[in-house]
Design a protein that fits this description.
With 168 residues, the chain is of the alpha+beta class. Helix content is 29%, strand content 42%. The protein has a nine-stranded antiparallel β-sheet with strand order 1-2-3-4-5-9-8-7-6. α2 runs antiparallel to α3. It is globular, with a radius of gyration of 19 Å.
Length: 168
């Protein structure tokens, strides 16, 4: 029991000291020594998702370039908020990336959002569950999965998940 407590305290302290706060997520990742291949892909993600909120990076304290890292960004809007999380997993010259983005919108219903997505791309697949409380949207390629959860008459929580195998 004593060993477990010591391990948990050590793990907590290691994770606490492995955080760095910087102006952008890619700068944080670079300061932590994240794998250069992963960093290149991550910079593109950061630009694409316009990540400029409160940013936090978690990386292996001793060898960050050879271990997975977790990067989060939270941002508040006048009509809601968003939370972005990505895991970068280096593998030699490759980097595998998982992306999760949660957006809460306080002035638009899930059905309106789903209809807008369908208007943008008529080839997407859409399924509803629990009498419209949940809407699952995904393209034929399964490039991403989007789940809309109704949180009120004119509010919606939107969760987008994606796994990328970009290579070198």
């Amino acid at each position: 029991m004593k060993k477990i407590i010591i391990f948990l305290i050590t793990a907590f302290l290691a994770l606490s000291f492995s955080r760095i706060f910087a102006s952008t997520l890619s700068i944080e990742a670079e300061l932590r020594g994240i794998n250069s291949t992963c960093l290149a892909h991550f910079s593109q993600l950061e630009d694409y998702h316009d990540l400029n909120g409160l940013n936090i990076t978690f990386a292996h304290p001793a060898d960050p370039s050879n271990h997975p890292s977790l990067h989060t960004s939270s941002k508040k809007f006048n009509n809601g908020s968003s939370f972005f999380a990505t895991t970068l997993s280096p593998d030699s010259e490759f980097c595998y990336v998982s992306v999760n983005k949660l957006t809460v919108i306080n002035n638009q219903s899930c059905s309106d959002i789903a209809q807008a997505r369908l208007d943008e791309d008529s080839t997407i697949n859409m399924k509803t569950y629990a009498e419209g409380s949940y809407i699952h949207i995904y393209p034929e390629s399964n490039k991403y999965q989007l789940i809309l959860v109704s949180t009120g008459d004119s509010s919606c929580a939107m969760s987008e998940s994606q796994m990328l195998w970009p290579g070198k």
